[in-house]
Fold this sequence. Notes:
Elements: E1 8-13, H1 22-31, E2 35-40, H2 50-57, E3 61-62, H3 74-81, E4 84-90, H4 92-99, H5 106-113, E5 118-122, H6 126-130, H7 132-142, E6 146-148, E7 152-155, E8 161-165, H8 169-176, E9 185-190, E10 195-198, E11 201-203, H9 210-221, E12 225-230, E13 237-239, H10 243-253, E14 259-262, E15 269-271, E16 292-294, H11 298-304, E17 310-317, H12 321-332, E18 336-341, E19 353-360, E20 365-372, H13 373-385
Parallel strand pairs: 1-2, 1-4, 2-3, 4-5, 5-6, 9-12, 9-14, 12-13, 14-17, 17-18
Antiparallel strand pairs: 7-8, 10-11, 15-16, 18-19, 19-20
Helix pairs in contact: 1-2, 1-8, 3-5, 4-7, 9-13
Amino acid sequence: MCSLEGKTVLIGITGGIAAYKICELIRMYKRAGANVKVIVTPNALNFVTKLTLQNLSQNNVAVDEFDIEDYKPEHISLADEADIFVIAPATANTISKLANGICDNLLTSVACAYTKTIYLAPAMNCNMWKNKIIQENLKKLAGLNYKILAPESGFLACGYEGKGRLCALETIFNATVDLPLKGKKILITAGGTIEDIDPVRYISNYSSGKMGFALAKEARALGADVTLISTVSHPDAIIVKSALEMRDAVLEHLTEQDAVFMAAAVADFRVKNTAGQKLKKVDGSDEITLTLVKNPDILKSICDTEHKAIIVGFCAESENLLANAKEKIVKKGCDYLVANDISRKDIGFGADENEVHLLHRDGRIEKIEKASKEVIAKEIFKRIWSINMN
């Protein structure tokens, strides 16, 4: 996570049920080193307490328009101090006031006096969100100094299903800070491919997808726009099954990427002729013969394709780890190769921890000691982009 040392973040909370979520957003900014100040509308205190917000922000929470501790008008001093200004959740009521210059509480007065970008994260009932007046007001604000962080679709507190749920806190955080990978597009593959034998049987491997998921999570935390292609179910992933499907998905998205992490365990072979019906036992025979053919080498094919991306390969070895990895990075032509030893039961496939070697194209090798896969992901990004992780 980037450092916000010396920066003041002003968070405005309005009277919606999503107000409780902002407690964690405050913690995110505090962990990044920011000085966090909070303004609440009176109705917001129906959903989250002033004492809670004061403890999390370690600052007094401003509510009243004329609660002035010194000679400075509160709405002007707060506006002058803030480097980053977020209003979340932003109710339909507050959005409409802001769009029409109404300053009837401290939050709207501060917003009126603020001259830089204001990040607005709406949250409301789906029918309210679709209301033409609200949409016109949002369009008006977007043309001014407001950045609208659109709500997500899903189950709402009011019982409806639709668009209106506060966007992810990571979306708010990433939009408001200068993250190391902000604006970068990164493609990541995860999981082990599945090669059908017949409608009920298949060839695969023990890859859980955990390393790929950890890489995707870290890339998003660093501000990247992530395309995750996985054989394992994940809410943010393009789901594929076989090596051929994964190859097609990777090549479809390759040209727009700044980096590609091929963390998936792609099967080297597939069945030549997949049976359309379940294979039956044959009387008098204790054997069955399957003819396998090579799957395409996705890593080598993207390295051989014209692209602008940094290509990071992964290899899982059960013996001669570094010797095989050195040979592979030359053969594949990738920029980096992450090698891990799957002969050990405490790391690798299915485990929550890993220990890897990061090979550079120029011959350098860096060992990343045993740690959780989340920490390994952080270290990989740190070393490839020389990111200063605070």
